[in-house]
Amino acid sequence: MLLRPAYTYPDQLTALLRQQGYAVLSPQGVAQWSGCSLEELMALRTTWGALPPDQYLKDGGRYRRRRHSCFVARDSGVALAPHRAHWQPVEYNALHGGMQRWFEPMEAGLVAQPAWTRLLAAMAQVASDVRGPQPWFLEAHQFRIDTEGGIGRPTPEGAHRDGVDLVAVFLIAREGIKGGETRVFQSDGPAGQRFTLTEPWSLLLLDDARVIHESTPIQPVAQAGYRDTLVLTARAEGFQGD
Question: In angstroms, what is the C-alpha Rg of the chain?
Answer without folding.
Answer: 17
